[in-house]
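Chapter review: from sequence to fold.
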Amino acid sequence: MFYYVLKYVLLGPLLRLAFRPRIEGLEHVPDSGAAIIAGNHLSFSDHFLMPAILKRRITFLAKAEYFTGPGLKGRLTAAFFRSAGQIPVDRSGKEAGQAAIREGLGVLGKDELLGIYPEGTRSHDGRLYKGKVGVAVMALKSGAPVIPCAMIGTFEAQPPGKKIPTLHPVAIRFGEPLDFSRYLGMENEKAVLRAITDEIMYAILTLSEQEYVDQYAAVAKAEEQAAAKAAKAERGSKFPRLPTR
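The token string follows.
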């Protein structure tokens, strides 16, 4: 119930008024039945802008950290995300991927819309990164079509680390549904899962016109952070502190 209060009374009208998002290809989203909306992930606000413009309810798989904050603030944040249609998924450990797939299939099994970001995390630099194969597994096991989606302008409106978004032109593009029924029963074939995921990512890339990086976003971010830390340490070693008396 609170989902619709947020969508139609509280958050939705505010987001549409503030960003006035340009919507393209909304007719590709089915009016009924299970479907996967697979999109790029540029900003924290992506979670709320897309539900605000869709006619149907959509459920996103969200990182568990949004639901585990301490104290009253943590409980209120968790309640808000649940009310906004988010499902917590633990992204750590060997079972994390399987847990996400189980949760996603549960949503699709109820003939609902499932929102997923195949990159697995927000882009830290606005580029599109390699997709993880969980979206392919869910598409094959559920038989649901995959609707590629591109968020455009949300990185500039709210880049990582920025709590309050700035006003910036935003567009949301939906592509034609992708049908992978030709691979039915092949969800355990790694090459097939990679091919499906790459096809989905190419469709997103075509819509978003981002620069593509054939590397997982989390790996690229960790490498950049390590390089920055090493560079800082090297600079520090060149300018040793003077001894104090």
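Two observations follow directly from the output. The chain has eight helices and nine strands. Residues 217-238 form the longest helix (22 residues).
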